[in-house]
Write a structure and sequence with these properties.
The complex is a heterodimer of chains A (426) and B (154).
Chain A: H1 18-23, H2 28-36, H3 39-48, H4 61-66, E1 79-84, H5 94-100, H6 102-115, E2 120-125, H7 130-145, E3 161-166, H8 176-183, E4 207-211, H9 212-224, H10 226-231, E5 240-246, E6 253-258, H11 263-270, E7 280-284, H12 304-309, E8 318-323, H13 328-342, H14 348-365, H15 373-383, H16 393-407, H17 409-418
Parallel strand pairs in A: 1-2, 1-4, 2-3, 5-8
Antiparallel strand pairs in A: 5-6, 7-8
Chain B: H1 4-14, H2 24-35, H3 40-49, H4 54-61, E1 75-80, H5 83-87, H6 90-101, E2 114-119, E3 131-133, E4 136-138, H7 143-151
The chains are: A alpha/beta (426), B alpha+beta (154).
Chain lengths: 426, 154
């Protein structure tokens, strides 16, 4: 099984330096892109590879790049922004790639910047990733010192600057337009769309956005071709995927596997199954804002389309396991507290609605639930939807709640009738 | 006044952005690194250096949870309270820390050694429960481990 994204990652976590990375075949994709391919040809290869965005939404990367306008009358400089703000609860995959093989990300960024013909790229990194910051900074310095960044890269005439921007916290920064405001030094409040960032983005200039894992795939696609890339996958989306598991399994962790392996394979073969004495009750397939699924979905492939057909989303592909001794109402209370706290407060459904949902769930967990609470929670899931809010934060917060109401309504009822949490003393 | 060192570091990072104001968050973090927290007075100096109003900069400073607008101890403990850590025993870890330090969330020990703060997912869910102290991440926490970790800070 080929694992291009993690092939250079050593067990002790020390990343390859530039010379070692080059020796392992690194910067060959960049060399090919800059010396043999036009920017359009690079975009075409990425489209052919069926690379879909690994940040959660799964938008085809090549199409995304093609939305960035080109030509002499386009405002300059254009930007590329790498979303390295990995803050979705239960997600820990981009950390692995940034700490383990920072040059792979840098190489991917240079190719992507060339493809959209931007002049400046920023990595927007969350504050808590201190180790990733240190390793990326070293890699960027090495890349500058060896002519991979700056003026006339590899003699191709292509120029670009790459800056590492460290944030100062807040989940909302992961939302593209909130991230733009954060990068501009403002409060991270989402912008009204349209216009969309590829056309009007950072400081009003065209701006492409990509997730860390997405970009790490790019050098390999250019180097080894779209057919090879598509064949890594078991489904029509190309490539491998970094999957992860947290919760009460025997071996929590992250693994690079073919796109489209089943939930069962990940949980049983890689995470080693449930801890002794515990049973799987539910799981969130791709982070805090994905709909809960149940053991009946264990044989669903973990890819964008299959997860959607099952009523959830692939999201970040890092699975949170919920065992039979964990209270689902309590878990939702934790999630809702998170989303309410991290709301930027700009639009009413999110600012008010999430706080109410959090209060209802917390009261229920403490034995103060009322029979009408279930209807109130359902009403929230029907009202807080895309189109009624500025961004996807609040609708995302409704996903685990609506699915829990669908699969585990009895848990809510038991809390209300017994006036206590039935899981408390288990 | 800002020190020469602080001014130099702010100047260097300001060059990464087309307008000075954009370096606000970076500038606050630089000053905080030297002074641990951002007082009103210091906020004013940073605003001057970036040619923006203190009110504007305070709006930014108060939005981001890693900018401290109140004094903190010599070391800041960030306990992850998000969902994976919650499943893996956040409540127990937090109670233990509170007992050991004699403070609650948002408070600083009397000797000024530790400030205890909650934090959202630290992105190390396979090692839950986790916490960070200053820039160091600690995972797979239990009481014994916490004792050892706390003892290593002055």
């Amino acid at each position: 099984m080929e694992q291009p994204l993690t092939q250079n990652i050593r067990p002790d976590g020390t990343p390859l330096n530039l010379a070692e990375y080059e020796k392992a075949g690194g910067y060959q994709g960049l060399r090919k892109a800059l010396t043999q391919l036009s920017p359009e040809a690079v975009i075409h290869l990425i489209m052919e590879a069926n690379l879909r965005g690994r940040g959660g939404a799964g938008f085809p990367t090549g199409s995304k790049w093609s939305f960035v306008p080109v030509g002499d009358d386009v405002p300059q400089p254009k930007y590329l922004v790498i979303n390295a703000d990995e803050m979705e609860p239960a997600t820990f995959k981009d950390r692995l790639l940034m700490e383990g093989d920072p040059h792979q990300l840098v190489e991917g960024i240079i190719i992507a910047t060339y493809a959209v013909q931007a002049g400046i790229a920023y990595i927007f990194l969350r504050r808590a990733y201190v180790t990733a910051h240190r390793k990326l900074k070293t890699a960027i310095d090495e890349a500058y010192a060896n002519g991979y960044l700056g003026r006339n890269i590899l003699g191709s005439g292509f120029n670009m600057e790459l800056y590492l921007h460290t944030s100062a916290g807040r989940y909302i920064c992961g939302e593209e337009t909130a991230l733009l405001n954060a990068l501009e030094g403002k409060r991270a409040i989402p912008r009204s769309k349209p216009p969309f960032p590829p056309v009007v983005g950072l400081w009003g200039k065209p701006t492409a956005f990509n997730n860390v894992e997405t970009i790490c795939n790019v050098p390999h696609i250019i180097d080894r071709g779209p057919v090879w890339f598509r064949n890594l996958s078991r489904v029509s989306d190309g490539g491998t995927k970094i999957y992860g598991v947290s919760g009460k399994v025997r071996r929590p962790g992250v693994w690079e596997l073919p796109m489209g392996v089943t939930v069962r394979e990940i949980l049983e073969e890689h995470a080693g199954g449930m801890q002794d004495g515990l049973t799987l009750r539910a799981f969130l397939p791709g982070g805090a804002s994905t709909d809960m699924l149940t053991p009946e979905h264990l044989d669903v492939p973990m890819d964008f389309n299959s997860m959607q057909e099952a009523g959830s989303r692939l999201g970040t592909g890092t699975i949170l396991v919920i065992d039979d001794r964990t209270c689902i109402v309590g878990l939702l209370g934790n999630l809702m507290h998170f989303f309410a706290q991290e709301s930027c407060g700009w639009c009413t459904p999110c600012r008010e609605g999430l706080a109410w949902a959090a209060k209802i769930l917390s009261a229920m967990e403490q034995g103060r639930g009322k029979p009408e609470d279930i209807d109130h929670l359902r009403l929230h899931t029907r009202l807080i939807t895309l189109g009624r809010t500025f961004c996807a934060l609040a609708p995302g917060a409704m996903e685990p709640l609506q699915s829990a109401l669908k699969y585990f309504e009895d848990d809510f009822k038991r809390h209300i009738h017994e006036k206590r949490c039935p899981w408390r003393d288990l | 006044m800002l020190s020469e060192q602080e001014k130099k570091e702010i100047e260097a990072v300001a060059g990464h952005y087309p307008i000075k104001k954009a370096a606000g968050i970076e500038a606050l973090k630089i000053v905080q690194k030297h002074r641990r927290w951002i007082s009103d007075e210091v906020l004013g100096h940073v605003a001057d250096a970036l040619e923006m109003s203190p009110t504007d900069l305070d709006g930014v400073a108060t939005f981001y949870n890693f900018i401290f607008r109140r004094p903190v101890g010599r070391h800041v403990i960030l306990v992850c309270n998000s969902v994976s850590c919650w499943i893996m025993g956040y409540d127990t870890i937090l109670s233990y820390l509170e007992d050991r330090l004699g403070i609650g969330l948002g408070e600083t020990t009397g000797d000024g050694r530790f400030t205890l703060l909650p934090n959202v997912c630290l992105g190390a869910c396979d090692r839950a429960p986790v916490m960070m102290i200053d820039d160091q991440l600690y995972g797979d926490l239990d009481a014994e481990k916490i004792d050892k970790i706390l003892a290593s800070y002055d």
